[in-house]
Amino acid sequence: MSEASLLAGPALRRLRKREGLTQAAMSARLGISASYLNLIERNKRPVSARVVVQLVDQFDLDPRRLTADEAIGGLDGLARRLADERFADLGIDREEAAEFLAAAPQAAAAFAQLFDKAGDAGARQSDPLAASSREIDRWRNHFADLDHAAEELSDELRLSRADMGAALTERLRERHQLAIRVLPREVMPETLRRLDLHARQVQLAEMLSPASRNFQLALQLAYLEQGDAITQLAAGSQFEEEAGRRLFERHLAGYFAAAILMPYSRFMRACDATGYDLPVLECRFNVSAEQLAHRLTTLQRVGQRGLPFFMARIDRAGQFSKRIAGASGSPLLGSDASCPLWNVHEAFERPDRWIAQVVRLEGDGETARDWFTLSHAVDASGGGGKFSVVLGLEARLAEPLAQARGVALRPEQAQPIGLGCERCRRPDCRQRSLPPRGAQLAFDTISRAATPFEFGHRVG
Description:
The protein is built from 17 helices and 13 strands. It is of the alpha+beta class.
């Protein structure tokens, strides 16, 4: 896939004004025409790699300042904040958010900071799970150094044994003097894996599936061989609480483990060759549906990018226990509750297949994107619970997918959904169980509407 264009007009305009230069003077220093610089400043043209090099050379500019809006999650982050129910009566759509960000990125960043420190959002700032998720999103769930290290280790393991489980077992035995022991359920009723250094054993629960056993062995290798790298990565992030940092470290260890089982280049070749055929990929790499979904959100290696998937894990009550946006920029993960019109719940009734649906987030404006989503029921590790794992990407990118064959991807076929009833202002939804938060309810004694609640603008 081609690299995304870098539109950084406001950043260049601020730099030029700070230096006290006219467009003619700055364009001369950059080796481009004044008219081309004018187009760049108005976001009509992207900043080329050659111009970035000249900016670094002529103005000692940190290239990261060209994408300062990424600190707030870019357009998707700003649009998510503006979609808050407190602004529902203003009808701000995605186009307006894009204009705000393009015209005044520093003002947009100031708004985002104030928003994050106010009300419920402020409370979430101290939530360690939310803090870890924000850091994962900041990296877009791609950690290049870990990926390369895992790929090298995976290639080394394949040279020793064709079977990954046997190769992992051999690595732990030869390199770390650790034996593998599978213990009965009554001995490890609530534990999946335990490192017993006294007995020099990695102990596994017998209820783990073969795919989960391999993952747990790879996870143990991650802690043993990449512990320092993982600690350093987490130390470079700013967490207010130790719990947030530890959750992030746990994610990084799982990332490395998945990258051992699905090494980047070989996995990408398989994705391209099969049209991202999910059941085929599960079998080829001997991984679970959830492990596969995680891996598909990470494919952002420069020069070898995959499709930009997001993934989520949802329980029967519609609560999200995992949300990874990857490079998708999807707004569908911006709520703690799912929409009953989204067929993620249907997966519980049809656990043997991936279930496809095209959805559109209601109230996302004229530039709303349609999303192709796939849902699959999975068991909790070791049994004892069920979740629905959801994969998704923009519908316009879904045509090459094996699971998209026969699915209508046209905009008029998309199912409108919301971010849970309390945040959705769609007036004609018969599935609604709660009115929108802050809405002015309307009551009519003459007639009774087919929808459960009638409402107008927000209170106050």
